[in-house]
Predict the structure of DNA mismatch repair protein MutL.
Amino acid sequence: MSDIIQLLPDAVANQIAAGEVVQRPASAVKELIENAIDAGADKIQLIVKDAGKSLIQVIDNGCGMSVTDARLCFERHATSKLRKAEDLFAIRTMGFRGEAMASIAAIAHVELKTRRHEDELGTCIMIEGSEIINQEPTATPAGTSICVKNLFFNTPARRNFLKSNPVEMRHIIEEFQRIALAHPKIFFSLHSDGNEVFHLPSEGLKQRIIHIFGSNYNQRLVPVEESTTIINLNGFIGKPEYAKKTRGEQYFFVNNRFIKDPYLNHAVLNAYEEILPSENYPLYVLFIEIDPAQIDVNVHPTKTEIKYQDERSIYAIIRSAVKRSLGKYNITPTLDFNQETGFSHMISHKKTEDIVPPTISFNPQFNPFDTGSQQKERQDNYSRSFEKKSGIPQNWETLYEITQKAHHQQLSIDSEDKQQESAIEKTQEKPAGKLIFQIHNRFILSQIRSGFILIDQQAAHERILFERFLQQLETHQGASQQSLFPQTVDLSVADFELITDLLPDIHALGFQIRAFGRNTFIVEGIPADLGSGLSESQVLEQLLEAYKNNQSTLKLTKRENLARSLARNAAIKSGTALNIDEMNDIIDKLFACSTPNVSLSGKPIIITFTLKELLEKFEK
């Protein structure tokens, strides 16, 4: 029997390796920009078309490459960052494995132009599927320009699994933002389909955060700084009142490398304990400087996970530093035991000379033994003079006329109450003669023939609105409430791309919004079902937050996610008092739904209590 094990060709091996390194266009963007940073560039441009499917181009002014290096960089495990195994424990660069360029070249058409600053001519290399098509000298600016065209052209299965252009573009923006936050001293720009999305000059970290997320973040940031023998921590955290329902704006960087670490994330959330509402997540952009010998970054293909030698100490340092910053800038509540605030409202703030002492008035002519007309005349004269002095209105005696009425006249009040109660009972009765009550402003109790039912009013209203919004998305007949004064909403680049993708469905729900300049929308109307509790900008921002939160936790279609997000924001909340008509309306519309018994979260909306169960409770 002949041997069956053989070495794979380099092209096949590179395609297999590309499955781990390059998962989508955003992965290629990350690898190319990190290489530009390692080359010492202080100006990096990113150009994409069709969300990176047609073109990804990175232009930098770094050190450039020689002819030999330009050819060798496309070989597997060819790197300029490592020489021996010990170098893995002293890594300061973004890349070190030497797999990215070979993996990208195996699944795309790549054109490389590079020139060192000391050379007069550069090098141009064209590769298709790991095969070099052309190599020649060329005139090019100092630095490197890499064009990646037709990504996954020879792996159609991978290309078919890519999402829509807006979704892939959001992933590219996410990777771009992470790198731009980690290197605020480098100029970055991003162009998508001919439009400039980002233009980030060299600046400080706070200005970089504001330029990426929006000018309204200027008042939301609290600085954090801590220096210890283990780590140096610096960056910014967000104020608790600006926390969101999604985890999107949370960034940890270790030696300027973005990482995902639930353990360290818990340290930050623990510092916000008792000052942050449940299921809310604060903004933070924190940088950890640590000795590379104390960590291992070679534990994940995307290099977003790190192993530490002393995790507990790092956890404690981060928690205490964040908590100290919250207290230092008066974010957390404080107690002053030197002042009793219970009597502070009783202290007068008037000047001493403005305070008038109280006076006592009496009638010197009063004679308790004089019951004649003279005594009555003297009392009337005194009362009139006292009214003029004290400002008491005339005819004040009529206030006591009710006490002079006959007893049977007061009983008529009870009879009126009985009439009102009977009228209320008539309005409470449904067509079948059932009574409806509200319990603790949370549940609706309705009598049925076999007992009674309890309805969760918030879950019921969410179900009603969800099915209504789904129908509006299908028929494009959502009712809109026109705004008297249209509002301008400034969004981050990622949120702007998300709304642009959802715009047709948002219009179908009844929103009237239109683009107004860069990353800005004008809201001219909102769905009529939302009421007037929130402003137009708040409604839109909450809709986006709920949509992103559902997107990360649930596998829903775009329309289901949108309808669910809007229904949750628009539904009446627990604790809202309802009148009889409102309760009747909820019950009627709930039983008209296709699935009235199950809430959007999969929990029951209606619980039935039978008479038999009640009798068993009373042991009858």
Confidence is low (pLDDT under 50) at residues 334-347, 406-433.
